[in-house]
Amino acid sequence: MTHTKSAAILTDQKLVNEELIASIAEVAMINVQHCADLFEIPLSLAQRIRALHTGADTESPRNALMDLSTTPAPLWRLSLSSYDLMRMTCQQSPMFAPELERYRPIVARLNRLVVGMLVRYANEPVQAALVCGVTSHALLKAVQEAACISLLDCAANAGRPLIETRLSHAMLDRFFITCDGQPVDPGMRAIVAMTSSTEHEFTVLKHEFEVHAASEGAFLAPQAATNRRSGKAPSFLLKPDDARLVMKMLSYRVKPIDIERCMADRGIRAIQLERLQSELFPKTKDVRDVQPIWSNATRRLEATSVLLKQQVLISLGLSPLQALVEAFDFHVQHHDADARLSLPRLLKEVVLPLYSREAVVFEHCQDCDAVYVSYEERMSTLDCPLCCLVYRKKLGHQRRWKNYVESRAGAQTYALAA
To answer: What region, left, alpha or beta, does residue 142 occupy, with left being phi > 0 and alpha being psi -120 to 50 degrees?
Structure first.
């Protein structure tokens, strides 16, 4: 993936972030209850965003919403099916309530941006899944068959936003200022956004993983009797997609013996791959290979974000191994400029034990509203990586909120708990 394309992907996600935050703030300034109903968020969250917009929240920086919208990760998830797309092109759907009709221009502006991004990535299913969160081939096919101008014109027909916000009080607590008063790093904000999850989403994630693990069996492929002639190069023995997958794994320094174990049913021989790796990818000192995942909270969160992207690609029809490599490649290109995560260690320390159900499990932190991978033998009271980062003053501390009250003038106000 070229640097220009990588920058374009981050720009697309940031544009939707900016429009979403601006739309929520615009509606909240008019009526916070309408904002909560239109964007399906808690009333207290709508009031807090309004306070950030007006500057009433004195504990957050003045440009908090601007920092929030420039987070290099999506603060939203797609909420669109092929049926919704077909209905949108046929007729105008009513809003959730008659009093929300006044906000249709705001919703239309947001939906046009979302539809334009979908059209841009419709011909690349993997990119559409990783950038937009698409998990349905039927939706991509419907977008491809429809005319671009027609879709953009019909975006105003939807009676609701085509995306759902991932914002929560826990996310806003962590995003702006660390415990020692310093601004939170944008890359750290991206990690928090990518691993945020409600309890319901965590339950769905665990169920989907159990289904995928049971249907695919173990992550390691079963041994198969195949014709293994060492005189030919692996590219002549594999399908083009499998050959590209092998080349990506070799480029990330995955050991040939591990590739053979994962792809044994496709006739892979480690001796061939060793010669190929030594010729095309000479061994160099890679900082990724000497950094264990379990000893660092940031790497645990990055491993979790890769696994979450893998589950999205599996839902799109990719095999677990191919989905893992594509998700890792996307993560390295966009979110791991410091080379913190290693694919060989991710396979050895997290993925294989997770699929074989050996001590590695998904966990959820209610204080942070985040999902993460955990090692059962190392579980402790401070097992959540986000809580560890807060303790190390990398993220903001949790703030306790009282119920919001109305002043005599009718303006919505709030107060922090003592």
So the answer is: alpha
Residues in CB range of 163: below 8 A, 6 or more apart: 16, 20, 76, 77, 78, 79, 80, 110, 114
Residue 100: both structure tokens together: 């929300």
Strand partners, 373: 362
- Cα(148)–Cα(89) distance, integer angstroms: 11
- Copy the structure tokens of residue 318: 């990719």
pTM of the model: 0.85
Residues in CB range of 147: below 8 A, 6 or more apart: none
The 10 Å Cβ neighbour count of residue 69 is: 19
User: pLDDT tens digit string along 59-111?
Assistant: 777 778 888 888 888 999 998 888 888 888 888 888 888 899 999 999 999 99
Q: Is 290 helix (H, G, I), strand (E, B) or coil?
A: helix
- Three-state SS at 311: helix
Could you tell me the end-to-end alpha-carbon distance of the chain, in angstroms, rounded to an integer? 50
